[in-house]
Amino acid sequence: MKKYKKRSVAILISVILLLAFTVVFMLSFLDRINAKMNQGSNETLMNSTRMIQSSINSKFENDEQQVISNANLFALSGGDAASFETLANYAESSDFYRFYYVGMDGTGIDSSAEPVDTASFPFEETALSRGKSGYSDAYVGSSGRPQITFQAPVCAGGRQVGALYADKTLSKYNDPALFTFSGGSGYAYVVDGDSGSWVIESTGSKTDDIYGFLAQHNNGEKMLSTLQDLMRKKEAGTISLEFQGESGILCFLPIRDSYNWYLISILPKRVLQQESSEIIKMVAVTFTELAVALILITGLLLSRESMKGREQGRIYRERLFQNISSNIDFAFLVYNPADRSVEMVSDNVRMLFDVEPGQVMSRPEILFDHCGMPGDDRDRISFFNGSLVKKMRKEYKTGTDNELQRWTEVHLLPADNGQYLAVLHDTTGEHHMRDDLADALRQAQENNRARNAFFSSMSHDIRTPMNGIIGMTAIARANLNNPDKVKDSLEKISTASDHLLALINEVLDMSRIESGKFSLKKEPVNLPELISNVLLLIKPEMTKKGHTMHVKSSVLDYDIVIGDALHIQKILLNLLSNAVKYTPQGGEITIRLQEKKRDDRMIDIVFQVEDNGIGMEPDFVKRIFNPFERAEDNRLSKVTGTGLGMAITKNIVDVMSGTIHVESTLGAGSKFTVVLPMVLMEPDKQESGVLAGHTVLVVDDSPDTCEGIQLMLEEAGVHVDWALSGGEAVKAANRARRMGRDYFAVILDWKMPEMDGVETARRIRADLGSDIPIILLSAYNWEEVEQEALEAGINGFLTKPVFRSELVQKLRYYIMGSSAKVQEIMDSETRGRFEGLHVLMAEDNELNREIVEELLRDSGILVDSVEDGLQAVRKVEQTGPGYYDMIFMDIHMPVMDGFTATGEIRALQKNSAEHIPIIAMTADAFEEDVLKCKNAGMDAHISKPIDIARLFEVIRIYADKESGDGKNEEKI
Fold first, then answer.
1. Which of 197, 313, 701, 902 gets the most CB atoms within 10 Å of its CB?
2. What is the pTM assigned to this prediction?
3. Residue 692: other Cβ atoms inside 10 A
4. CA 98 to CA 90: how far, in whole Å?
């Protein structure tokens, strides 16, 4: 096949070279013809213009001769200045609209019997003063139009006795037969050569002068200035121009014996070059015929070669066709309507449309059926019966709204040799992309609407606590002598500040999420402790509104997982905070916890928060996770918020690869379900076998809780009895005593109807003594009942939801000994006394510095303060090792920032065994900020605004470490 191609290429190259030579020759020949024709056109127009000029000169000479004849007749008639009738007869019998006679004294009369005076003539007078006949320059006279005046001396008896004058308007010379020529295509004008103003106007001359007229026909300044210079120099010639939307030639010729008048003629080039155009056409036809003959010969030669390689080419095309179609998502069908056969079909119809190529070869209609193209489609019918005349493109859909939908774009077009080509392209992905883009646009519009609403509401939400802070500060300042009033104001300022900080934190969290800077920690998470902390945080608000909290769970085996404790806590806090906000006074809130094991290393933790609050509209449920969304409900006018809580929660859940689902009924409440996948910690090997054979009494008004604890303990070999009230528990304990089978331990719920857990414990102790360990179970933090519980005989505490490992460990504690010993309770005091502790504080803000100094000095701590990092470095240098127990370092300070200062201090300690703790105290509170502090050499991080409990916790940790107790070492 390559051999045939080489021969064809050689023939083509020869023909192309021959054609190229012919084209060059013909173009050169045509160029010479065109130049000759242009020259002839210019000469033709110049000759035509001279003929017009001759006619105009003849008219002027005839009029001048007529005036001379009238002057001679006037002299023979013995006319004088009073013979106006004679003058009137002259005017009536000629094209002159006025005649007048002036005597040698310069006065006379006109054909209307009006007196005239040479002193008032608006033209140059020559007949009376110099005895010379002629005509004047053009001027606007008594006719109100451009005119000229012919003049001739009047002589009698061999001497001049006066002069005769005749006025004629120049429009009388505008003879269409003279000023329009070449069948109406050419026009002539007479203009003033100096100013270009019209002397004798013609067709289309509605401007003030020839230059304005030419400018109207899109002629440039260069052409106009060239014409003006030539006419001022009194030259004649031709110049190219644009006229009536086509190219033309302008001829300018001075009129002899005139006042620098020019005759202008304009004619389109096409009129002048009609003959040349015919010649050019003949040449072009000849060239075309030659080219066609050459091409035909070439075609005959090439067809001979192509016939030899056609079969090879067909095989090659088929192979190429199949290779291409197998790698793209376009299917092809070549159809011959003459014999209703399929010439070719791509193999990829099997993959794209689930139909075999063999089926399509025998029944091509089946391919169109699979694309959803109706059988009565006009283009389909035209394709198969051979009446398709132009390309067609349509799209078809298969599947209903409730089924899998598919779109196919079909192209039908006529091909060579009477064949038709069908190209089918699956556009389902493009439709989905368009739908996704449309959804994204709608989402962006919704976000924009919500953002606008957010900024509107935030103005109110931020100003409200700010107003409270400013107002309460003013009240406190005005009542400095009233400690109670000051204390009340400070408490309200603290509440408003906490609210304002929460608003700011939510906005900052959303900003971090949207900017892509959000990241998760991977750390051990103690789920019982985390849930206890969440319930402790939410309890004050619940108590204030009189809500009842129910904590329910299935069997919980894993109390420690790997995750981000802070963000899991944030998810639960956001859900519970919303439940508290939107549940009326006295409502109920339920939190459920469930474990679903995936494999040996992962579980799904399922949190459910349900309330019986006001609920949500179905439309708002769809938008609840959009940023800045808040329900438009008059009942929520006093509920503050940014509309970001649920958006933040959804983003955190998504980053954790979890799911969140919401169900809500307006007026009945809402339920949020969150599923978070968690990696399991390596379990501690606990000896649960020591519990086998013991019997435990479980007391709770919830059967689910009793059954859950029963399942946990039975796996450890413990027999469980349970009761649903305090009275039943007392009876069961007494019954077991009488039967000589005392319970090993009793687990009591705190909040039960009729008789609570504390009272139940008190009665059991009264009946049975202090031998049996009693554990108090509560969904709340038990600190408020701790003292009363201990006095009633409670030995330990458990917080709902109950985890297996925590429960087993608690019971093992009593089996292994110290069963009567009360569980150690962590000291709740957030601030201690640190007499003799010496710290250095670097803080550039005076107010922040004063607050921290006051807090530290109240705890017995000695404080040295500096205003920037450089001063802090100088202090450490001057005082020497061991002088300061720790350093509090701001980050953003003038002169030297906190990071640089920390580096300088660490460099000073490089050769010393001392490592002074440096604690960052900064408003940079994000996770990456904490990591920067660690990398800079700092030991701990406290974010602003300062949490006092956190401040003293960090001080306690490093004070204990300095004193040798490293158990509580802080990890940044």
1. 902
2. 0.41
3. 10
4. 8
